[in-house]
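Figure 3 (text version): structure tokens given as input.
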């Protein structure tokens, strides 16, 4: 799974925030329009041919693990290079990935988010580890303007990390509460 870009342009003075300008590569969200889905706060996982994988970021100067599957080319600025690495039941680091995998009723190929008590301090408040299929939870927001998205994510009744927009041919982009300086 490639790293996905942000819907709006980053603030050049503070790259953790966005400005009220559409990121040109994501104009498709407004033209197609994009399908808004809930962004879960966890860690990326995937199922390929019934096998479980976790995302592993090979940082600049580090070696790619054996049999790792590259998700994209290395980032020329940061040097980060995301890969998929197969999970192993005998590896204690993979314990929670397999708990989520074992909790799945249907183990369809695709990318997932691992959420649960031992993942990212559990902002999703799950009581056990689960793999959530990316794009499975559609949102009702229809106005994707800067102010509307900011207002939607600012609503205290909407306790989500952000929105991932899905388009034709696998296109995706995201926007998070933190991009607007909003705490969860």
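Below: residues designed for each position.
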């Amino acid at each position: 799974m490639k790293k996905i870009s942000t819907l709006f342009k980053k603030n050049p003075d503070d790259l953790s925030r966005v400005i009220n300008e559409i990121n040109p590569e994501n104009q498709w969200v407004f033209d197609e329009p994009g399908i808004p889905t809930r962004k879960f706060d966890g860690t990326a996982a995937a199922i390929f041919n019934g096998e479980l994988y976790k995302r592993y970021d090979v940082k600049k100067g580090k070696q790619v693990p054996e049999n790792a599957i590259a998700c994209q080319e290395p980032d020329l600025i940061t040097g980060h290079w995301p890969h998929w690495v197969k999970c192993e039941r005998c590896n204690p680091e993979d314990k929670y990935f397999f708990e989520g995998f074992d909790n799945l009723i249907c183990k369809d190929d695709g990318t997932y988010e691992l959420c649960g008590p031992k993942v990212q301090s559990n902002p999703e408040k799950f009581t056990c580890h689960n793999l959530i299929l990316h794009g499975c939870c559609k949102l009702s927001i229809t106005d994707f303007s800067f102010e509307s998205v900011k207002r939607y994510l600012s609503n205290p009744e909407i306790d989500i990390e952000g929105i991932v927009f899905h388009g034709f041919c696998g296109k995706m982009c995201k926007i998070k509460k933190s991009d607007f300086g909003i705490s969860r």
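The mean pLDDT is 94.
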